[in-house]
Amino acid sequence: MQAWQIGVFTSVDAGLGVHLDVAQELGIPTVQIHAPHQATRTQAAADAFLTRTKAAGITVTCVFGGFEGESYADIPTTARTVGLVPEETRAARIQEMKEISDFARILGCDTVGLHVGFVPSDRSGTSYKSLIEATRNLLDHVAANGQKLHLETGQESADHLLEFIHDVERSNLFINFDPANMILYGTGNPIEALKKVGHLVRSVHCKDATWAAPDLRGKEWGCEVALGDGDVGMETYLRTLKEVGYQGPLTIEREIAHDRERQKRDIGTAVALLQRLKAQIL
Ligand code: MG
Question: What is the pTM of this model?
Fold first, then answer.
């Protein structure tokens, strides 16, 4: 695959991504997809989806898992409901994530992605240790499918994400770097974070955001905005990706599914911005 192919986050029947026809219309060659609901994770649905992507010349680079009951309403709710961290739903979500990995394999995709949740800070605590065990269990299933798992960034600092990946001790665990999430969650300067974790980054989101006020960072969301309008600094972001040796796709994410027209327009503008910067930097 060529370096830095443009991509977009899409959804089949769930999630915040654009629909596949938008990627097709904008001539975008790669997509990450939000995993469809269980009822549509079938061979027939996979075949139909692959027929469409092949016709459009689109490659699926990552299938992201998401679960019923997750809510990003505010940061405390996200911490309570998202990913594999909440213990009451963990077993069921691991099982579902294994099924999503199986579905990704049918799609011929060697990568699955996940928000693991807010990893407990105490590395010697029982909740941290049980999360490590659970993640290993999932990763072994993912490995048997010949796949890697990419953790979405944002809910931890770069340092704690590195500690977690180190402690899991599995060779198929990598990072999907989202610079805007570092700003939205207030977990650190995204460029500094990228320099720290760059050796483990295998996919990225091109998303932008503005910081919450200093006294509110980590407590209230920053604001997700169109690519180039936020505090990430897209030119610095791409230059840093080059510096850390990243060559994978540049997957645009614009999380305004309530306004499909604007979402499509912003993605078109983002494609143009990334193409211009690619021509300068790559
Ligand atoms: Mg993201």
Answer: 0.96
